[in-house]
Fold:
Amino acid sequence: MCDEDVSPGIVRDTSKLSRRAFSKLSAASAGVAFAGVGSWGVAAVPVTEKDVEITTADGKCDAALFYPTGRGSWPAVLIWPDIMSLRPAFRDIGKRLAGEGYVVLIPNIYYRAKKAPVIGDNFDFARDRAQLPATPAMDLVDKDSVAMLSFLDAQPQTNKAKKAGVQGYCWGGPPVFRTTGNNPGRIGAAATFHGGGLVSARPDSPHTFAAKNPAAEFLNCVAQNDDKNQPTAKDTLNQTFDANKQAHHVEVFAADHGWCVAGSAVYNQAEADRAWALLLAMYKRKLV
Structure:
């Protein structure tokens, strides 16, 4: 969970810093490739980025849309951002993924209260968390996911004959499970990165939604301090996927909560590289 003892610390995330960090990442990883999944950091093809508005049951959601520039169509991917929502670091993630051949949508989860970005530079999660709007209830997220997927499928760049993917970070972990379970005919692959609250004692615990879509493959990249706080969660996930006869990969990474998002004080490029490679490999297998 995104609480104080597993928070990403101070988040430096202005547009200027994000571009600089991305350039540094690209230079550091130039020429580094993962067998069968391409290279990390540099978009394989030019990418078009658009700010868009999506009509939902509750209003207009501001979001960012990314897709390969040029003629063609590609599988769709919905990204649920972390609790700090759409911002430059997630735009970089969207660009990188679109450059691998996907149509990517990243919504502002707080659209009912405030347009993105909702944080500025040097946001200290432990100190400034109260400045964030209230996170939407999961029943609202369920409605939003339908609108997001419908929007993606309405884009001429989306290949609707191929399954869609969904991935989420921190707060975005539970919406990944719910989106996957509630859209079994559409979602073929799902991934969480340091997802919070994936397993609980509630009857509607996020992990229970996996059974509604046994054909979907799951990737769950767990932070080491999240695992320390809830050491049995990974076992429950594995047992659930096994019971569903569901393709899955659950792994505790040698990095702390928030490690996959650039700008976080705990960002770990080496472990982010590994998580990204696993993601791309799964999408290539399942979004067909």
Q: What stands out?
A: The longest strand covers residues 47-56.
